[in-house]
Amino acid sequence: MENRDLGLRIIFQKILIAFLSKKFKLDYFRINSNLVSIAQEFIIESYFVGRRPGKRKLLKAVKKINLDSISDNKFFYDTDIEYSHLDMVNEIYDTLPSCFCELSDEEKQVLIFFDLCSNSRLAKIFYSDIPFYSGDWYKIVDFLRISKTSFDEIITKLQTVGLIEIYRCKYFLTKKYEEELMRLSTIPHFAEVNLEYFEVQSSQKKLDNGFTAFSGDCVSYYVYTKLKTEKCSFYYVPSLYKCVDLLNHFDIAGMSNKTVWIDNYLNKNSEMEQEIQNIAKRRRIKIIVSGVVQYPLFGIESSCVQMKESCVEDIVKQIYPPEIAEPINDYFVKNNIPYEEKRGLIFGINEFLALNHNPQYVAQRLPEILSTANPADDEKCSEGDNIDIEDNEEDKTSDETSVVDVDEFQNRYETELNFDNDQVKNQIMEIFHKLERSAVFLKTDRNMLDELEKLLDQHPNILNKDLLCDYLKNAILFSKQSKIKIPPLLFVGNPGCGKTLFCKQLRQLLCQDNDIFIPMGSGAGVDYLMGSTPGYKNATNGKILSAIWEAKKNVNCLNPVIVFDEIDKVSFNERIGDVNQNMGPTLIQLFGDENFLHFKDNFFDVSLQNYNPNFLATANSTEPIPEPLLDRLNIVKFRDYTHEELKNLVIPFQYQSFKNEHNELAPDCLSSEELEIIYKLSGKNTRQIQPSINKYLAAAFDLDGKKHQLDSNAIEKLVAKSNNSYEEKQQIGFCM
């Protein structure tokens, strides 16, 4: 199922409007301070600094926010309004067999409404100690256009199927609902295939407790479609470790008669297999195993799944998006690829897609993938072949690299340490499962050189630009095995000169999906970076370790770009009473290549393989930073933007970001006069440019969406009003 925009942000807004505009049995605005704080967070830009806003003004401000041009993801991720189920609630509309399938769209809408109320900041209103009366629910759901009678019927239905329960006029989602949503959220959204396009040679040998095994071509797609066609409600696990955890959960909870699909079976582990078989037999769990390699799985001769020769092109169209499927089929036709080689190529492409989930990126790399993905090429290679064997080896290294040694982990935690705390055990196992995923390196691409030049041109205020260009160019051209390695860089300059922005843009250039920013000015200690010892209360792993699974989507990254923001704000005092706050020795260890080879997270306490992150840092000044640490950093200096640079470079750049996030009503570009107005509104402060763009457009457009020219008096009043409301503060960085 593709993620759909459920309009959760709009529902959130209308709930706030209902609270601020309708009359309830209790005045929640007066007695529940959470309502005011949540509404102000929703507004994002606080209009009421230093004082409690009035109800009418707050309502007007909430109504004014236009959310039509942004998505649910952007709204909830870009604000402080937390919603823990944002990535899962879509599953209610999934077509996989579940208790949600029997619900109507109206019933699903009410269920999603309760999920938003229960798992976002709204819970502090609905589920606080303050009573909430049944009649008030009708006023809240009135905007859903559901009558009181229909709402009562829906509640009865949801109670009957066990998805909600009522206690003191409040509606609570049940454990059944939570588990069903979690089950669906763990199942990848495989493309469905036509089962008639495959030939299956069934295994004759089966175990008594209902184990079934499949192996062969596109086996995950085949099993997924088969289970869905049979309307089988199943749990999905991508590894034996995950399966053991799930079955132990079933055992403790007394759950029986479930179906579990173990996908990507690669490595035999007789001890785990035996444990799985024992629990499965005891709890009557049906196990389905699938893997690409055809050998006995759990001692079962697997059923061999093979694409029919005449259906390969049709299968390609079903499992890949058009931008990938069409070039593949064209390649097959133009090169007259034999059937066996087609199978090998599709296997290689599936492996690559498992690591890189962006279809556009895969489509760009497709010629290279097609030339290297076929496993049969290895057998044909000889000294006289014109095949770049080194490139093949690099790809193999990138795709098959692991982060943690399984044997070392098992030795550390199965023979050396006895857990007294189940929470610690679960945390460590969760980290291990995350590190189990496939791991890749950020790889260099010659096209990056052109992008690097464009990036540097966007920052004319870099003083030693030639030196920075040399560092980055060498990282792209000469990194071993094309694995990006940048020397530790320190960007120094006054607040608002673009240091943080440059780090973000560099991360994007290097094809890293997410920013890994560590705010050093927030009081973070050594534990925040390196993890804390499991014996301490609330102990957890450090940020350096979690960067492995946070940097890229759905795959681990072994050389992520990690940014230490405002490194000059941390304590380097060796005499400080709390050793955890003296960051100097830790940073020296991290920035020294010879030391990082021995890196261990204090919480996880297992060596990492092939982990070699790239470190960047920002600072307003180098004076507080000790000399031994500066010796390990390559300093790049930024000056302040000039008036012309702000007007002709920074403001147009930020306006383009604004334009990309809004509808076509926003002008494509701003005139020179408009840029000058925004410059004046910002007070020469880069952090005020985005708010100033909002202020100018709000003044230039009326409620009907018509733009009008501001005269000199209107501009002067707007600037004067902006200057009066702007409080001088110490700037802390460049903010997009």
Strand and helix layout:
Elements (H helix, E strand, L loop, with lengths): L7 H14 L6 H4 L1 H11 L11 H10 L7 H7 L26 H15 L3 H4 L7 H7 L7 H13 L3 E4 L2 E4 L1 H11 L12 E4 L10 E5 L2 H11 L4 E4 L2 H14 L5 E4 L7 H14 L2 E6 L11 E5 L4 H8 L2 H13 L4 H17 L3 H14 L3 H5 L8 H12 L5 H9 L7 H15 L2 E2 L6 H11 L7 H14 L10 E4 L6 H11 L6 E4 L6 H5 L12 H8 L5 E2 L3 E5 L18 H8 L1 H4 L17 E6 L7 H4 L3 E4 L5 H18 L11 H11 L6 H12 L11 H14 L11
Parallel strand pairs: 4-7, 4-8, 5-6, 6-7, 9-12, 10-14, 10-15, 11-13, 13-14
Antiparallel strand pairs: 1-2, 3-8
Would you tell me the structural class of the helices and strands? alpha/beta
Instruction: Assign the CATH topology of the largest domain.
Output: Rossmann fold
Count every helix, treating DSSP H or I runs of 4 or more residues as helices: 33
Please outline the major beta sheet.
Answer: 6 strands, mixed
- How many E strands? 15
Number of domains: 5
Low-confidence stretches: 46-50, 373-400, 727-736
The best one-word shape is: globular
Sheet with most strands: strand arrangement: 3-8-4-7-6-5
Whole-angstrom Rg: 29 Å
So, CATH architecture of the largest domain? Answer: 3-Layer(aba) Sandwich
> How large is the share of residues in beta strands?
5-15%
What this model shows, in words?
By secondary structure, the protein is an alpha/beta fold. It has five domains: 8-185, no CATH class; 195-306; 339-400; 447-637, Rossmann fold (3-Layer(aba) Sandwich); 643-725, no CATH class. The protein has 33 helices and 15 strands. The protein is globular, with a radius of gyration of 29 Å.
